[in-house]
Amino acid sequence: MTLYEDERAFWDDIAGKYILKHSGADQNITKYIDAATTYADRMVIARRKRKIERLPDSDIPQRSASVASLVAANAV
Question: In terms of pTM, does the model score above 0.85?
């Protein structure tokens, strides 16, 4: 499976966590690596299918009053 640059860290995280969670003292680590690879591939495919929408400008959180006062105080 081909991964895009922005998917590499996501894939590594999924596969690594799977291996850490499911592997143990068993000597046959190959089956865990194969399962982790398949699981991570499926997660990347599911992520690609998700629709991504941009928030309208009015829904973007604004600075809080305390941050605004700190910025104003430092500007003086």
Answer: no
